[in-house]
Amino acid sequence: MAKFTIVTPAGASFTTAGGGYAYEMEALSGLDAEIVEAPTDTAGFIAAAREADAIYGKGIPITAEIIGALTRCKVISLGSVGVDSVDVKAATAAGIPVTNIPDTFIEEVADHALTLLLATFRRVIEQDRMVREGRWAEGRPALLQVPRLWGQTLGLISFGRVARAVTRRAKGFGLNVIAYDPFVEESVMHEAGVTPVTLDELLSRSDFVSMHAPARPECTHMLRAEHFRAMKRSAIFLNTGRGPTVDESGLIQALQEGWIAYAGLDVLEVEPPSHNNPILRMENVILSAHTASASARFDEARKRRVGAELALVAQGKWPMSVVNPAVLQSTTLKRWQPVAIGRGPNS
Question: CA 55, CA 70: separation in Å to the nearest integer?
């Protein structure tokens, strides 16, 4: 048995199952470490992971029950930005750091957010349908009802890494950007050319409302029917963050009753959606299948990042991105970074 054992659910992957662990093992080579696959049922996983040095979380929830059974775990590492698959509160109580990869797919998600913004604003799907259905003459009159993009206002809910990357892109299209995030200093927003506002101000002023809040318990159903009712009737709602941050029934009602004009959604409250979800039949919605972070570098980059975090812990060092950093000081791991590092799922 290797000196440092990492247990992970068998066959589970953030993208496609299988393929081995060559990318993760690049950073771990020479450290007498191994990645061992375990059954995906709770009892089987606990039996295999009880004495593991690390958990590579993917495919199954890492619950309080699992965490409570771990006797020597030094880290739980995830290959995603979101950490909702782990009971972070239980991990914190157990003194186990939880790592994610908050900065690996920022540019891809920001690109996707702008793609949805432009596609919804310029009614790209409708225009495509008109051409294919022989309704060529209807295209121009339809867009004569749409104002110029330059000078419109984009409101960002949460101002983490993705929202900041969206801001850089939006400025190039002449958009005014405002943001609501009570956990980010106003000076950070000002430096990015963004005006900090309250949530109520953001909803009433924005032509586009873009959701970037993380999937934390306190953010569940952060936007509800009353919030959509407070938006402009011409507003477009975008979500490339997490589906559960929005009460989907409220969003559906807003789209059906014309409280807002359009939506561009990469995420839904339940994924994949049920075949009878009304959103699937709405012509004023553009959808993608939770693919905003996907690109040719996706799987390779995230696996290497997980390997790097595990390798640091295997060497007795603090990992780089910890969503519960308060636990680090009570572990046997040593700080090694020469400068402060931003931490957390939305840092």
Answer: 10
Task: Tell me where in the chain the CATH 3.40.50.720 domain(s) lie.
Answer: 4-104+296-330, 106-287
| Residue 148 is among the residues annotated as catalytic for this protein | no
Gap between the Cα atoms of 316 and 54, Å rounded? 12
CA distance 229 to 204: 9
Low-confidence ranges of the chain (pLDDT < 70): 1, 12-19, 339-347
Q: Which of 51, 186, 226, 271 is catalytic?
A: 271
- CA dihedral for 286, 289, 290, 295, sign (positive or negative): negative
Q: Tell me the one-letter amino acid at 110.
A: A
Query: Would you say domain 4-104+296-330 falls under CATH 3.20.20.100?
Result: no
Asked if 37 is an active-site residue, the reply is: no
- Is the peptide bond prior to 338 cis by the omega test (within 30 degrees of 0)? no
309 carries an active-site annotation: no
Task: Name the active-site residue from 168, 169, 224, 290.
Answer: 290
The SS3 assignment for 225 reads helix
Taking alpha carbons only, the member of 149, 156, 190 closest to residue 172 is: 149
Which residue is catalytic, options 242, 302, 304, 343?
242
CATH superfamily of 106-287: NAD(P)-binding Rossmann-like Domain (3.40.50.720)
Q: How far apart are CA 157 and CA 159, in angstroms?
A: 7
Q: Are 308 and 29 in contact (CB under 8 A)?
A: no
Give the distance from CA 157 to its chain's centroid.
13
Q: Which pLDDT score is estimated for 347?
A: 39
